[in-house]
UniProtKB/TrEMBL annotation:
Family label: In the N-terminal section; belongs to the cytidine and deoxycytidylate deaminase family. In the C-terminal section; belongs to the HTP reductase family.
Reaction equations catalysed: 5-amino-6-(5-phospho-D-ribitylamino)uracil + NADP(+) = 5-amino-6-(5-phospho-D-ribosylamino)uracil + NADPH + H(+); 2,5-diamino-6-hydroxy-4-(5-phosphoribosylamino)-pyrimidine + H2O + H(+) = 5-amino-6-(5-phospho-D-ribosylamino)uracil + NH4(+)
Name assigned to this protein: Riboflavin biosynthesis protein RibD
Cofactor note: Binds 1 zinc ion.
Single Gene Ontology MF annotation: diaminohydroxyphosphoribosylaminopyrimidine deaminase activity
Length: 356
């Protein structure tokens, strides 16, 4: 078999690994959402993706899915990320691979986790397995971007998201809002559902004081099936009333405030103190990293979003632009770069930007 043919075959099956790996989005953290495929004679005989945290990893699920286990010693395992070689919630995946007798493993990326970092590859090679690495490396890095950002940059993957009118406003003039704090919907119903899907895919959701006071948001995933992200509130002076939804304790919530204003922790509400003289964003991100949160979606308000933009701490921006015109109100942040791609969501335009 020529080298070119083998490389194309490897790409084919790693693309399938990436395809099925996406099924774990939003449920596997702190584990990466890995995809695995097992082939025999150019035919897929087993597949698996990472279970919700605490369950079997992709490699184990792929091995378990093979009906005829006698084929495994003559098969190839494809996996998007280096198999783990340490005990966590589950035994090492390298143990399961070696026990199965699979002789060849094709890996997209080396795992940057300090407990793996090439050790899994070494275990397999030392046991006599053929290990091929670096196939579809760019695509695998894209897929594992949350996990890689967390371990390589020691912070969560940061998504900035907002909805805006066609004339560039995030919210109308206060005079047209009701006296009772409630969200003012700019985007369509289908886009709001999309936003809840996005929430279900991330570990945390963050807003500033003004958004909490003016919108009294719930910050949950009620319009989409999925886990609620941890809620994060920047409220230096603790000015958000305790009867507001974000402080109802129904979803775990972190509140960042100055030390002199910090109340006692209560059920579901944890306070983290920050110094008024230090830059807030790096300190906040370090705390979220220490809490093992691999991603955060920042939903407002304009001051908070502009703080992230100005600091350079962002990886992705998602803007939903509605065709409505507000004529006046809260100006949305300005982006001068071109979007990576865009698509329609009902009547709205969704633009995705990346900080490459």
């Amino acid at each position: 078999m020529c080298y070119f043919y083998r490389v194309k075959i490897h790409e084919k099956y790693l693309l399938r690994c990436l395809q099925i790996a996406g099924n774990g989005l939003g449920s596997t953290a702190p584990n990466p959402m890995v995809g695995a495929v097992i082939t025999y004679n150019d035919r897929i005989i087993g597949e698996g993706f990472t279970s919700p945290f605490g369950g079997p990893h992709a490699e184990v699920r792929a091995i378990d899915s093979v009906r005829d286990k006698s084929l495994l010693p003559k098969s190839t395992l494809y996996v998007t990320l280096e198999p783990c070689c340490h005990f966590g919630k589950t035994p090492p995946c390298t143990d399961a691979i070696l026990a199965s007798g699979i002789p060849r493993i094709v890996i997209g990326l080396k795992d940057p986790h300090d407990k793996v970092g090439g050790k899994g590859i070494a275990v397999l090679e030392n046991a006599g397995c053929e290990v091929i690495t670096g196939i579809l490396k760019k695509e695998c890095r894209e897929h594992h971007r949350r996990f890689l950002t967390f371990h390589e940059k020691k912070r969560p993957y940061i998504i900035l998201k907002w909805a805006q009118s066609a004339d560039g406003y995030m919210a109308p003039d206060p005079s047209v809002r009701t006296a009772r704090p409630e969200p003012y919907w700019i985007s369509s119903a289908i886009s709001r559902q999309l936003a809840h899907k996005w929430r279900s895919e991330e570990a945390a959701i963050l807003v500033g004081t003004r958004t909490a006071l003016e919108d009294n948001p719930t910050l949950d995933t009620r319009l989409w099936k999925g886990s609620n992200p941890l809620r994060v509130l920047i409220d230096r002076k603790c000015s958000v009333p305790r009867d507001y939804r974000i402080l109802d304790g129904k979803i775990k919530t972190l509140v960042f405030c100055t030390e002199k204003n910090a109340p006692q922790n209560t059920e579901g509400i944890l306070y983290r103190t920050v110094s008024g003289g230090e830059p807030l964003i790096p300190l906040l991100l370090t705390t979220l990293w220490e809490e093992q949160l691999q991603s955060v979606i920042v939903e407002g308000g304009a001051k908070t979003l502009n703080s992230f933009l100005g600091s350079g701490y962002w990886d992705e921006i998602r803007i939903i632009t509605s065709p409505v015109h507000l004529k006046n109100g809260l100006v949305a942040p300005k982006i001068t770069t071109k979007p990576r791609y865009d698509f329609k969501s009902g009547r709205d335009l969704v633009q995705i930007f990346r900080n490459d």
